[in-house]
Amino acid sequence: MAIRVLLVDDQPLLRTGFRMILEAEQDLAVVGEAGDGLQALDQVRALQPDVVLMDIRMPRMDGVEATRQITGPGRDGPAKVLVLTTFDLDEYVVEALRAGASGFLLKDAPANELVQAIRVVASGEAMLAPSITRRLLDKYASHLPSGDEPVPDALHTLTEREVEVLKLVARGLSNAEIAADLFVSETTVKTHVGHVLTKLGLRDRVQAAVYAYESGLVRPGAQ
C-alpha cells in the first residue's frame, strides 16, 4: 500500500512543488494539504496520513505545537511527523523533536532525499543523522537541563549495557559505530536500542538522544 502523506506549509507554491515530487513515486500518495497547524490537525483526523510533512513557522499554530498534538500521548496510531525547515539548525528544530517529530529535513534538500526521508520515517525509523542529532543538542545546550536534576526513575529500568548504548546514541554514534565501540554485532546493538525505546516509551533514536540529554545522563558537549 502507498504511504499516505499530508503536506503542511503556509506557502502554496511549496506545497505544489512537494506534491509534484511525491506523486511521481508509485509508493507515495499525497492525501491532503494544510496551510497552518490548525488545519493540519483537522486533516490528520479526517485523512489518517502515515506521514505529515510539517513546516515549522506558520500562522495561527506553528509546526511545533501541531506536532505535539499529532504525536502526543493517547493518540491511536499517530502519524509520523517529518519537520521541514529553511535553516540548518533552526532554533525550533529541537523543540519539534521534543514534541515528537521523527526527524527534520531542509526545504532545499534534493527531491530524492525528500522521498527517501518519507519512506524512512514511515517505516518507524528516525530521519536524522546521528551527527546532526549531536550537533543540534550541542548547539542548543541552553535549552536543556544542566544535568544536576535527579535521574528519572525510568532510567533504572535499563540494564548497564542498555545505558551504555543510550549514551552512545546520544553522542551521535551510528549502530555500526556503537557495535565497534562495544565489540558486539550490529544486530545486538539494534536489539539494545529497541529495548531502550520500549522501556522508556520513546518513538525512535532521536527522542532517545533528546531524553538522554534532558535526563542528565549525557551533558551537552561531553565526550
Number of strands: 5
- Main sheet? 5 strands, parallel
**Averaged pLDDT, please?**
83
Proportion of helical residues: 40-55%
Number of continuous helical runs: 10
Q: Looking at the structure, what is the overall shape?
A: globular
Keywords for this entry:
globular, 5 strands, Response regulator transcription factor, 10 helices, transcription, Sig_transdc_resp-reg_C-effctor, WalR-like, five-stranded parallel β-sheet, 223 residues, Sig_transdc_resp-reg_receiver, alpha/beta
Question: What do these coordinates show?
Answer:
- By secondary structure, the chain is of the alpha/beta class.
- Strands 2-1-3-4-5 form a 5-stranded parallel β-sheet, sandwiched between helices.
- Helix 1 links the parallel strand 1 and strand 2.
- Helix 3 packs parallel to helix 4, helix 7 crosses helix 9 and helix 7 crosses helix 10.
- The chain is globular.
- The mean pLDDT is 83.
What would a concise description of this structure say?
The protein is α/β, with parallel strands linked by helices and 223 residues long. The chain has ten helices and five strands; from the N terminus they run βαβαβαβαβαααααα.
Topology readout:
Elements: E1 3-8, H1 12-22, E2 28-34, H2 37-47, E3 51-55, H3 63-71, E4 80-85, H4 93-99, E5 104-106, H5 111-122, H6 130-139, H7 160-170, H8 175-182, H9 186-200, H10 205-214
Parallel strand pairs: 1-2, 1-3, 3-4, 4-5
Helix pairs in contact: 2-3, 3-4, 6-10, 7-9, 7-10, 8-9
